[in-house]
Amino acid sequence: NIAGALCISQAWPGMARTIYNDHKRFLETYLTPYPGFFFTGDGVYRTSEGYYQLTGRLDDIINISGHRLGTAEVEDVVNHHVAVAESAVIGYPHEIKGEGKMPVFLSLKCLSWGYCTAILTAELRELISKKIAKYAAPEYVQVT
């Protein structure tokens, strides 16, 4: 069981070869961080059985009231809830906090769990408050 950056050792057809009008940026972003590998920009978790789970973009950061927070770390906490199959966290402008509002979009494992949206939202806010910080708790949860 290990987590880290998802890097690829061999090229494949259709793989990006440059960034339009900025080849230097392409090299610095995708080839320099891990010499000999193509850095995808994604985080990954590999189980002891050899299965891979993408954990999200490593460079996707939300600034909540001056606190820089990665979306992947919030998604990881939310995904530990028994009713959640997967989640997505995004930021959008907030008149007081800057980029503070952080909605969480969820797919549930089973709709027969009986969680209503209000209860699930409260449980997830509490979970994120305990595992990360109170400022990281989402203001909005959308169950799909």
Structural features, described:
The chain has 2 domains: 2-57, no CATH class; 61-143, ANL, C-terminal domain (GMP Synthetase, Chain A, domain 3, 2-Layer Sandwich). It contains 3 helices and 10 strands, in the order E-H-E-E-E-E-H-E-E-E-E-H-E. Strand 4 and strand 5 (67-70) form a beta hairpin. The strands form 4 sheets. It has a 3-stranded antiparallel β-sheet. The radius of gyration is 18 Å and the shape is globular. Helices cover 22% and strands 37% of the residues. The chain is an alpha+beta fold and 144 residues long.
What order do the helices and strands come in, and which of them pair?
Layout: E1 2-8, H1 23-31, E2 38-46, E3 52-57, E4 61-64, E5 67-70, H2 71-78, E6 84-89, E7 92-94, E8 98-101, E9 103-108, H3 117-131, E10 140-143
Parallel strand pairs: 9-10
Antiparallel strand pairs: 1-2, 2-3, 4-5, 6-9, 7-8
Pfam family, one: AMP-binding_C
Protein name: ACS2L synthetase
Organism: Stercorarius parasiticus
Known CATH architecture of the largest domain: 2-Layer Sandwich
Approximately how much beta-strand content do the residues carry?
A: 35-45%
Give me the strand/helix succession: EHEEEEHEEEEHE
State the major sheet: 3 strands, antiparallel
What gross morphology would you assign? Answer: globular
Termini separation (Å)?
30 Å
In the CATH scheme, what's the topology name of the largest domain? GMP Synthetase, Chain A, domain 3
CATH class of the largest domain: Alpha Beta
Strand order of the largest sheet: 1-2-3
What is the average per-residue confidence, as pLDDT, rounded to a whole number? Answer: 83
CATH superfamily of the largest domain: ANL, C-terminal domain
Number of helix segments?
Answer: 3
Instruction: Kindly state the percentage of residues in helix.
Output: 10-25%
Unreliable residue runs: none
What is the radius of gyration computed over CA atoms, rounded to a whole number of angstroms? 18 Å
GO biological process, one term: acetyl-CoA biosynthetic process
Pfam family, one: AMP-binding_C
GO cellular component, one term: mitochondrion
GO molecular function: acetate-CoA ligase activity
